[in-house]
Structures are given as C-alpha cells and as structure tokens.
Amino acid sequence: MATATDQLVGFGLVAFSLVLFVYYTLWIIVLPFMDSDHGIHQFFLPREYAVIIPVAAGLLLLLFIGVFIMFVTWKSRKHSKKSD
Fold it and tell me: Alpha helices of 1-84 — where are they, by DSSP H?
C-alpha cells in the first residue's frame, strides 16, 4: 500500500501533467484560431517554441536513457570481472 507521501507526490505529478497538457493543447489547437490582438496571447510563447521545446525535451530524455544504460552496462561488466 502506498504511503500518504507517495500518494501526494503521485497526485502532484498527475496534476502537473494535466496542467501541462491543457496548456500545450490550448497553445497548439485553440490559439491559432483566435485573433492575434486577443489578450490571451500574452500568456503563451511564440508558436515556433511549440516544436522546439518538445524536441529538446525528447533529446534530453534520450540522452539520459543512454547514459543510464551505459552506466548500468559499465557497472555489470565491472562486477562480472571481479567474479572471474
């Protein structure tokens, strides 16, 4: 059973993901159909960042996964050499 702290952290992550999803959806789908002089545009970045930010986040994610796999592989080789 999850502790109260785990549940609170999980709720926070879900809430953050929901806010991020709603913000990105409004930014990409709704904002292009609104007039450019509407006041809501001040809360959003320019549209070119809608592509740049997810691509950069994806590349960082791939980098961290690659470093993690490299670290685990390096550690397992180190332990297998000790046992030989």
Answer: 4-25, 49-83
The Cα 42–Cα 21 span in angstroms is: 18
Residues of the chain with pLDDT under 50: none
Angle at alpha carbon of residue 49, lines to 46 and 54, rounded to 5°: 150
Using CB atoms within 10 A of its CB, is residue 43 exposed (0-12), middle (13-18) or buried (19+)?
exposed
Q: What tens digit of pLDDT does each residue of 5-23 get?
A: 999 999 999 999 999 999 9
**How far is Cα 70 from Cα 64, in angstroms, rounded to an integer?**
10
Model pTM score: 0.68
CA distances from 17 to 10, 14, 25, 45 (A): 11, 5, 12, 18
